[in-house]
Write a structure and sequence with these properties.
This protein is an all-alpha fold. 70% of the residues lie in helices and 0% in strands. It has one domain.
Amino acid sequence: MSAMTFVEMLKISIAMPILLVLSLAIFAQALERLYSFWFAQKMPSAMWERVRDRLEAGDRAGA
């Protein structure tokens, strides 16, 4: 049995290209969420340090 190429794998079933497209869409959404949460919010690092310190001290309500 010879090795299958990527195109041959996609031709096996109609579901394969659909799964590939949906997987890429989910990956793109994950990258967008990562950008949104970490870069676009511009949260100051001092605030994250205060939250971490309060959580370590056991003050969940204050964090």
